[in-house]
Design a protein that fits this description.
Strand content: under 5%
Order of helices and strands: HHHHHHHH
Helix content: 55-70%
Largest sheet: none
Number of strands: 0
Number of helices: 8
Radius of gyration: 22 Å
């Protein structure tokens, strides 16, 4: 399929990539093909690829993790989740990574809230503890911003 229809003119490449992604038989070459075929997640491939790529990050590869999280941030801005379960899985991973591995409490809270908004707690009540912990550590929105001290006003010199 990938070689038979390399430009996806007959839709075979898309069907093959989709089937392989769903079967779990994917590698970096397939991930790249899926991202090129579905950059705006119109077929739900991008959400599957991003979640699967987390499994390819080697322990301690913080730069690789940060790069992948940036891709998740860009994906989230698209606002297109085709499979709610796949989206919940992806955003769960992002929330955990931002809470524990690449500390960014605001982004962790953003993804935790996204999980709540997507109905993740109804689908998997075990997520409640994780979400509650992340949201408890979130920067407080209502906290007044500290104002910088104003320098004392100087009086004009008298002549």
């Amino acid at each position: 399929g990938l070689e038979v229809d390399p430009e996806n003119k007959a839709g075979l490449k898309l069907k093959c990539v989709n089937a392989l992604m769903k079967s779990g038989n994917a590698d970096a070459t397939l991930f790249d093909a899926a991202e090129k075929l579905d950059p705006k997640n119109e077929n739900g491939l991008l959400e599957m690829v991003l979640a699967a790529r987390f499994g390819t990050i080697k322990r301690g590869d913080l730069e690789g993790l940060k790069a992948l999280l940036l891709k998740v941030d860009e994906f989230e801005k698209l606002g297109v989740v085709k499979d709610t379960d796949a989206g919940i899985n992806l955003f769960r991973i992002a929330a955990i990574c931002y809470a524990q591995h690449v500390p960014d409490p605001a982004k962790a809270a953003h993804y935790a809230q996204k999980l709540v908004d997507m109905g993740a707690l109804e689908k998997d009540p075990r997520l409640k503890r994780l979400i509650d912990q992340i949201l408890a550590n979130a920067p407080k929105k209502d906290a007044p911003a500290e104002e910088p001290e104003k320098p004392a006003e100087e009086k004009p010199a008298e002549k």
